[in-house]
């Protein structure tokens, strides 16, 4: 991932990448093989699926046509978007975290968790306890200790939010492949 790469893909980029069945096949295959796969193996699997035959029944022309399409068009497009990494020396195509990001477009009925309510609730409770600490003179409930506790609580909520989002990205939906 380059330093200039955006943290998330734009919706236009995502839809463009997902608009082609061959790219969806590559993405779905990389979802299940996180270490990457050789481009030639990927092309063979795709050609077999498209032609509805076993890989050993493919003609050389079917293999070559699919390989050239992936090599010249689809893998470079996915690579430019930062969704895959392609090592031309080894021929390995590897996924980046954006593969799971694209898969989220296929989640069914997932409602986003209302994190704004969690933050608002934590801040409201913190404010009430802080005001109470100012109004009531209790030594262990001094305003500076309450303020520190509130900050620690908000940092903890932020940490839980981060972990939740990371897990949601990796446990997402599978990318479907329907051929036109």
Radius of gyration: 24 Å
CATH third-level topology of the largest domain: Arc Repressor Mutant, subunit A
Mean pLDDT: 85
Main sheet: strands, sense, barrel? 3 strands, antiparallel
CATH class of the largest domain, named Mainly Alpha
Oligomer: single chain
List the uncertain runs: 1-6
CATH architecture of the largest domain: Orthogonal Bundle
Name the strands of the widest sheet in spatial order: 1-3-2
Question: In one word, what is the shape?
Answer: rod-shaped
Structural class: mainly alpha
Compute the number of helices. Answer: 7
Helicity level, as a percent range?
Answer: 55-70%
Helices and strands, in order, run as: HHEHHEEHHH
**Count of distinct structural domains:** 2
User: Strand percentage, roughly?
Assistant: 5-15%
In total, the number of strands is 3
Q: Give the terminus-to-terminus CA distance.
A: 32 Å
Structural overview:
The chain has 180 residues and is mainly alpha-helical. The chain folds into two domains: 11-106, Arc Repressor Mutant, subunit A (Orthogonal Bundle); 115-170. Helix content is 61%, strand content 6%. It has seven helices and three strands; from the N terminus they run ααβααββααα. The chain has helices at 11-18, 21-32, 39-51, 60-80, 98-103, 115-135, 143-170; strands at 37-38, 84-87, 92-95. Strands 1-3-2 form a three-stranded antiparallel sheet. Helix 3 (39-51) crosses helix 4 and helix 6 (115-135) runs antiparallel to helix 7.
